[in-house]
Amino acid sequence: MITAVIQHKKDTLVVELPRANTDLQIKLLSIGVRTLPQNIKLFGGEDAEIDVQLASNSRVGQHLCRLFNTENSLGDVNTTAYLVQTADEGIKTDLEHDIYYDQYGTAAELINDIKDRTLALGPVKMSLYFPLTGNIDEGDGNPFTVGDSFLYDYRYDINDLIEEYQDRDVESILEYFDGDAGAKAKLVSAQWSTEIVDGTLYGKVDLRLREELTEDELTSVKDWITGQNSDGAFECLEDHPIDSEDGKLSISLWHGGNDYFVSTRDELDEYIAQQNEPKIGGM
């Protein structure tokens, strides 16, 4: 869709976008560029260490190139091209029409419109919840697990971290869904975040669906979320700790205990109620 011509010192890289972030980074390394795509500004000119110019052989791609300026990054181009190229067939024709007739002033405006149009395809909303685990490293190489109150205190940092690394992924996480075919056909979007429920911070996935899931489809989606969390979704959050007063706080979306779950809100409320029930023989 878009050709990026990247000049670094005396080396030139010509790369077609969109492509996976990891693949793009490998391409950049081939000409000695270690900077992340989201930190490489466009149209740097002759004096810039890294210069990026854009071109396209397609009509839509040519109009897409007009949306970018020196405030945008190579990562912005890659993300925008990906969203346009992989747009749902239900919106793609109208979307390409609007791009061709320059209905957008900026790439950000286009991205927001794609997201809004996509969400409109999924009128059914559902949220699924799972426990979070936090570990503190005080610098001695012996990390320890922190409690729910500690995670609560850093709830904004944790949520921002999850959103940041989810947004860095060019490919939609739904591309990794390998479960029930019926569930896959109904899924429109899946957004990871957090939510406080009864004073505890939980991980959350907000789903937009074309229609309600069956029980079997719901089970398949829960299994997929568990798999994503256990595989270290979003570039392994554990490798990107948060600075806290007590040391480096690493967040995990999964743990191997028997008490791990992915649940609906009703199921979560029932679980919390059971946890709060007085124990037999207790005061």
Short synopsis of the structure:
With 283 residues, the chain is of the alpha+beta class.
What can you tell me about this protein's structure?
This protein is of the alpha+beta class and 283 residues long. Helix content is 40%, strand content 24%. It contains 11 helices and 11 strands. A 4-stranded antiparallel β-sheet has the order 7-8-4-11. A hairpin with a 6-residue loop joins strand 5 and strand 6. Helix 2 crosses helix 4 and helix 4 packs antiparallel against helix 5. The longest helix is centred in the C-terminal third of the chain and has 16 residues. The model has no long low-confidence stretch (mean pLDDT 91).
Biggest β-sheet description:
4 strands, antiparallel
Helix percentage:
25-40%
Tell me what portion of residues adopts beta-strand conformation. 15-25%
Radius of gyration: 22 Å
Total strands: the figure is: 11
The largest beta-sheet arranges its strands as 7-8-4-11
Strand pairing plus helix content: what structural class? alpha+beta
Please work out how many helical segments DSSP would assign.
11
Question: Average pLDDT across residues?
Answer: 91
Element pattern in H and E: EEHEHHHHEEEHHHEEHHEEEH
- Our measurement of the CA-to-CA distance between the termini, rounded to an integer number of angstroms, reads 68 Å
Uncertain runs are: none
* Dominant shape: globular
